[in-house]
Amino acid sequence: MRILYPFAKRFIAGENLETALKNIYKLNDNGYLCTIDVLGEDTHNPGQAENARDEYIALLKAIETHHMPLDLSLKLSQMGLSIDPALCRKNVEAVIDAAGQHTVRFDMEGSNLTQAILDMCLELHQPHSNLGIVVQAYLHRTEKDVATMIDKQISVRLCKGAYKEPADIAFQDMQAIRENFLKLAHPLLKEGHLPAIATHDETLIRHILQFIEKEKIAPETFYFELLYGVRRDLQKHLLDQGYQVRIYVPYGSAWLPYTLRRLAERKENILFVIKSLVQE
Ligand code: FDA
């Protein structure tokens, strides 16, 4: 699968911390905030889960003197959730402790883990803690989850959802997903704690901009969050308009599952890969 690396490079900030940090500093210098994801997921080996924990702690150590306002994003399946929830909790707590004021957000994964990820977040959350969560607009359950997170004032990143889910639990039609995204974004923007609107969908962004203007929502009370390497023009446009723009920056050697999800999101990406393979 190394053959996909030239494509992966567009979406990841490097295969190691040193390269990633150069890109993170560059983004910071240009006015963007960053959320860092050490790539890896679905670990079935306790040693690998501990290595992932240590990589996050090494990252925090490396930026200690830079006072960068960065967030961390973690996949609980990388921290050992599918092996043993107690091991996962121990690893996550170590990262949260090391993170201090930096927000630690749990990425949302496939629906077999949704409840366990939400439960872990609610269990570890304390008032004013640095914990955040992601919710997916394609899931029917998410309206209820958003209400819970607003009630607890846990910071939420709202995205459409990137996994293949069945019709009995998830909207399948893009229009329905968009409508639900907006239905969820409105209360988050009005009453949520520092929500992040995570999409590159210009129709959604246009609606959100109209909503915040109508409701007089201050730009410092929420983020737009976009993926590293996706729609840089839109990232810059939002930044230039005075919004807080966060870039989700993944790095590490386990780039394949993340890259395959980015590939699947757009048929142009698949065509690009096929074309470059044919040209080899
Ligand atoms: P949509 O897919 O409609 O894309 C809109 C436009 O953006 C496209 O027309 C294209 O121009 C561009 N674009 C989008 N994806 C692209 C790609 N892969 N390559 C090139 N161009 C692309 N999901 C999840 O299940 N759990 C999570 O924790 C997260 N976390 C997360 C963080 C952040 C910051 C973002 C932005 C997204 C996520 N996601 C996620 C992924 C999310 O669920 C969704 O799959 C993608 O964001 C694509 O959906 P969009 O809303 O961007 O719209």
UniProtKB/TrEMBL annotation:
It comes from the Bacteria. Its EC number is 1.5.5.2. One of its GO terms (molecular function) is proline dehydrogenase activity. Keywords: FAD, Flavoprotein, Nucleotide-binding, Oxidoreductase, Proline metabolism. InterPro entries: FAD-linked_oxidoreductase-like, PRODH_bac_arc, Proline_DH_dom, Proline_oxidase. Pathway: Amino-acid degradation; L-proline degradation into L-glutamate; L-glutamate from L-proline: step 1/2. Residues 20-272 form the Proline dehydrogenase domain. The keyword Oxidoreductase applies. Its cofactor is FAD. The keyword Oxidoreductase applies. It is an enzyme of class 1 (oxidoreductase). It holds the Pfam family Pro_dh. It catalyses: L-proline + a quinone = (S)-1-pyrroline-5-carboxylate + a quinol + H(+). This is proline dehydrogenase.
